[in-house]
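Quick start: what a row looks like.
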Amino acid sequence: MPYWSLYLEGQGFTYLQIATLMATIQLTKIVAPSVWGWLGDRSGQRVRLVRFGAITGSFFFAGVFLEPGFYGLLLVMLAFTFFWNAILPLYEVITLRTLGQRKEKYGKIRLWGSVGFIVAVGVVGAILEYVPIQSLPWLLLPVFAGIAVSAFLVPSEQGERKPPAPKGSLKAIVTHPAVIAFFLMNFLLQVSHGAYYTFFSIHLEQHGYGKLSIGLLWSLGVIAEIGLFLVMHRLSRRFSVRQIAIGALTLTMIRWVLIAEVTDVLAVLIFAQCLHAASYGALHALSVQYIQGFFGKHHHGQGQALYSGLTFGAGGALGAWMSGFLVDGFSTSAAFWGGAVAMLVAIVITWRGLRPPPAPAVQTEG
């Protein structure tokens, strides 16, 4: 993700084309998690579905090497991400079910995804200082191979199907005012991240930062995220869901303003990247447990799929696409200001509507 927009720029695509291509990564999250979540809930074979997604996604990614042009690459990325986006939501459910009553340990497991990100970004960034950006797809091949191999190291599930859910209960959950506020909050959060995931690397390059520096700054954000995952269980005991969410959204709004206006001051940029602990780490860890609390055991997979589809999918795609118009018409800084405005709206919605999940005795009823 940190280098893909630079790769697309190197291929000669316009800013609006780059935004459209980057949006496809999020766009398939609208449909894919629901499809795979439903299959996982129905079959109980989530580990096998993860393996299938890893292998098939890697196969479709190989279409990048054909250099098919804008529309061809659009199709390649749509096909590839449909399978690739199936992996993480399924793994979230596998992890939480394996943990059972020890759900506070989730952050300590999830941090290893962050460690992998840091290693990959650092190594690839260092290599790209010596090889052209057009080599990026070749550098990704070992990563995809690693994903496929690691999926086969996870033991298969028993495949026991869940008991039938209470009729009509999913609709009652989704239409709950607190759940609507929760999804709106996360939708706007991902809209605000559109400029970050699409144009942050280009924004830094425009301000004179090299490939390795860009990679290190991306990694810094993820290091802060790891620190947050390690202490999230303590924050959850000390503060309410609403307090954590509003605090994290406010820090995210400050982050986008700093990136937009003070990019040239390295110390400020380092501080802004440390705020990734709030803008992703805190809100994602909170959201995963929030979904389990509201959707219960009968609808956990579908709840996770809705979270991924409506927020990372629809919100991320819209944010990426809108940021493309702002960059094309104004500047990369304008796109980050757009993200700050989205956060201001999210803060108001969260303040007025977000409430904690029901007690355990209620949540099992769906």
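That is the whole record. Residues 247 and 366 are 29 Å apart (CA to CA). Confidence is low (pLDDT under 50) at residues 361-366.
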